[in-house]
Design the sequence.
């Protein structure tokens, strides 16, 4: 990994001391990958720094490696959720085998962004199937929020308080663990806020 610099940018001496360090970077949903960074010190004048200016490039390379691997990891996570790539393509109106092409390296920033959104919010596929119709979307958002709150309440056995940036807006949720109440759609939410 070591590249030979170069000279001291302060005094021009080539009497340099190089130390390496390893740093870790991780793209969204990607694996942790390491990058070896260099630091130089001039023995003549004591000036220190990345004289070769390679460190930014090495960090960028590592991030790109992590991002390429993130595509496989996201697809594997979706498979674990029983979401096939054919279904993703159909729901989003992508040509068949689009995702296979992304997987084999022909991906774009837009493709990676789509995969990240689907991985974070898999139910967006149901919204897409419903052609993003407003009531269907609202219902999905509310039921997904209810699922998150219910599982958090089961895990932590606590009540939830949601406070918005405006301090007079707050919503207290007391989830009844013995008799869970399903919050099914926006009409229930509107009623609860009255
Ligand atoms: Zn120097």
Sequence:
């Amino acid at each position: 990994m070591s590249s030979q610099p170069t000279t001291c940018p302060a005094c021009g001496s080539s009497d340099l001391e190089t130390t390496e360090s390893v740093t870790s970077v991780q793209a969204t949903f990607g694996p942790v990958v390491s990058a070896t960074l260099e630091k130089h010190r001039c023995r003549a004048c004591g000036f220190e720094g990345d004289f070769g200016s390679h460190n930014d490039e090495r960090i960028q390379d590592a991030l790109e490696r992590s991002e390429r691997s993130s595509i496989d990891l996201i697809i594997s996570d979706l498979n674990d959720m029983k979401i096939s790539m054919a279904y993703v393509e159909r729901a989003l109106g992508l040509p068949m085998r689009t995702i296979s092409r992304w997987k084999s390296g022909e991906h774009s920033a837009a493709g990676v962004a789509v995969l990240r959104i689907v991985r974070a919010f898999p139910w967006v596929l149901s919204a897409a199937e419903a052609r993003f119709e407003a009531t269907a979307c609202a219902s999905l958002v509310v039921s997904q929020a209810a699922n998150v709150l219910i599982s958090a309440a089961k895990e932590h056995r606590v009540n939830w308080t949601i406070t918005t940036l405006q301090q007079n807006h707050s919503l207290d949720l007391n989830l009844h663990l013995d008799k869970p109440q399903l919050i099914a759609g926006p009409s229930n939410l509107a009623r609860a806020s009255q």
